[in-house]
Amino acid sequence: MMRWIALLAVTIVVWAALAALGLSAAALFASLVVAAIFAVRGLGPDRVPRPAGMLAQGILAVSIGLMVDTETLSALGSSWLPALGVCVATLVVSIAAGFLLALHRDVDALTGALSMIAGGAQGLVAVSRELGGDERMVAVVQYLRVGLIIVTMPLVATVVFGAGSGGAVASRSGESPWYVDLLVVAGAIVVGIGVARLIRLPAPATLGPLAASIALELSGWIDSVSAPTILLPIAFVVIGWQAGLAFTRDSVRAVGRVMPWAIGLIVVLGVLCALLGLLLSHTTGISLLEGYLATTPGGLSAVLAVSAASGANVTFVAAVQVVRLVIMLFAAPFGAKMFLALRARRSRQAEREKVSLG
């Protein structure tokens, strides 16, 4: 119990310090770094209990699912096909970058793909262990990608695409009471996980609540519902602890060896996504800046902030970003399941050939 108390206390202090500096996703970064230090020094708990990890995944999934409302999707209008095509192309480019990352001796193919998928960093880290990847490597590379994008995006938007200032962010009206929000989130998690397990979905703690919350949001029954503000940072802390407590001295050294290669691939991925943004601009008639912001691979809140500040079409940018986020979170578990099945089949075939030759 004392180890948990110490971990919580230090996490809160570091979280507050990072938040004061204006760091995006401060709760997640703080919990990951603190838990990793505790784990490497042998001061932390063994691991996050599985029910707590599943609950955190469910909260994050419902928060994302409730963003997929009809108003956001309608912003795509007649541009939905090019937008969907760009999202799928981003997935393909991300997976290709992941396989290149896996050329490094410290990274396997599945971990490489999960590390480089552009979208839903927190969700991918949350499910990586369940899918068979190395969640430590996935966490570091994903957050490195988000960090690099957040740092460089305002500069690129201003210098390359001529972003100005003066936009405004629209506030959401008609919000429901917090206890209604809490009941909806709890219901979506319980029902979603139950149904996902029943039909044997991969990563049921993520895909089940995600599908349930999207269905509820699109049904129009819960237009004013959103995940309670306090829940998401708590989920981020648990997810960060889950990844951080798995670190060892050897894994820290392995991550250090991979970093230069990962940074290079993240830069290439950012450039390719920017080119996809130019293609989206050409096919839909949106500005080059809006195309870039709609396709930039990471940091949804930062993307929307830059969009609003520069007077870009925030609703369109948000729609493309949310669609891509949902595609990534659905594609990763199913892709991982197929990859593992193929690898197991090849392994069995190799064993049979070995026996026949012997």
TrEMBL record:
It comes from the Bacteria. InterPro entries: AbrB_dup, AbrB_fam. GO terms for biological process: regulation of gene expression. The chain crosses the membrane at residues 80-103, 143-166, 178-199, 220-241, 261-280, 292-316, 322-342. It holds the Pfam family AbrB. GO terms for cellular component: membrane. Keywords: Membrane, Transmembrane, Transmembrane helix. This is Ammonia monooxygenase.
